[in-house]
Amino acid sequence: MASIIQVENVSKVYDGGFRALDDVNLSIEEGEILALLGPNGAGKTTLISIICGLVNLTSGSVSVGGHDTIRDYRAARSLIGLVPQEIALEPFQKVLDGLRFTRGLYGKPADPDFLENVLRRLSLWDKRDSMTSELSGGMKRRVLIAKALCHQPKVLFLDEPSAGVDVELRKDMWEVIRQLRAEGVTIILTTHYIEEAEAIADRVGIISKGKILLVEDKDTLVRRMGHREMRIELLEPLASLPDTLAKYSLAQSEDRCTLVYSYEANGERTGIMSLFNDLNAAGIKLRDVDTRQSSLEDIFVSLIEDKPEART
Ligand SMILES: Nc1ncnc2c1ncn2[C@@H]1O[C@H](COP(=O)(O)OP(=O)(O)OP(=O)(O)O)[C@@H](O)[C@H]1O
């Protein structure tokens, strides 16, 4: 696949001297869904704002569809739609009027059929004559997506699309994103949620403290994250582990009331059944069991440990 966005050696130092991005390189393929994952303050919004031409870079270069975002900014921006994190809409503007206006701003000819299609696919057609101030938060977010699509961009950025969004809207949004990808639109979204990346991304980029730590095919990353932990709460404290349980490398809590078993969730054999059998055979009674998937945070920790602070 050809690359549609090239980010080369991009750094950003804000006015106060804070280095929000540090020598970032990223190539985004045409037609893919790339999720940028990272904790608060990692630099996700700064990176997409630079690509969209809303924030000036300090050094490096960015091109969109072969157009440099500084020298050839009009051509670069015309290819981009952005759904911002914050809801910023004209309160007394009707939904359809807002879309017509935004399309006009990009110098695109009027196309009522296209705008109707955009509103219908976002379940907003019935609201086309409502003022945006009359809409619910979820509908406002749909309007933001509609506005970002109304000039037919080749690349769509969604900054934290799931922030403050209920499950139903999230699923609808994912469906719209998949349809757009099927039509050839390249999608870049930022998120804190690994589930969101798992649900829709083709590739995942992990960003932390202004650096891209990895960009990887999602399935490969999910395999890396397939580590799970099972916590087994015991009815009574266990003074010492019987030899028959040694092969499970169980950890014990300080109060001896909990055993922790680590296993690969995607492995062919998790060993859970035989562990339960061996616990039973040893006469160990269980009060409760719960499991937890290694989180994005765990991956961050494993990725960034031993690395000194990168910022000045
Ligand atoms: N205009 C600015 N002036 C100075 N510092 C800024 C400015 N904008 C952002 N920053 C800082 O740059 C860092 C990266 O911010 P950014 O918004 O890009 O992170 P993010 O990964 O999008 O975070 P979040 O998930 O919280 O939205 C943060 O520490 C932030 O405080």
Brief synopsis:
The chain is of the alpha/beta class. The protein contains 10 helices and 14 strands.
Walkthrough of the structure:
By secondary structure, the chain is α/β, with parallel strands linked by helices. The chain has two domains: 3-223, P-loop containing nucleotide triphosphate hydrolases (Rossmann fold), CATH 3.40.50.300; 227-293, Alpha-Beta Plaits (2-Layer Sandwich), CATH 3.30.70. It is built from ten helices and 14 strands. The chain has helices at 44-51, 73-78, 95-105, 112-121, 137-149, 167-182, 194-200, 218-224, 272-281, 296-304; strands at residues 3-13, 19-29, 33-37, 59-64, 67-68, 80-83, 155-159, 186-191, 203-208, 211-217, 227-234, 251-252, 258-264, 286-293. Strands 6-7-8-3-9-10 form a six-stranded mixed β-sheet, with helices on both faces. β7, α6 and β8 (186-191) form a beta-alpha-beta unit. The two termini are 37 Å apart. Residues 14, 16, 18, 20, 38, 40-46 line the site of adenosine-5'-triphosphate. Residues 5-234 form the ABC transporter domain. InterPro entries: AAA+_ATPase (IPR003593), ABC_transporter-like_ATP-bd (IPR003439), ABC_transporter-like_CS (IPR017871), ABC_transporter_ATP-binding (IPR050763). Belongs to the ABC transporter superfamily.
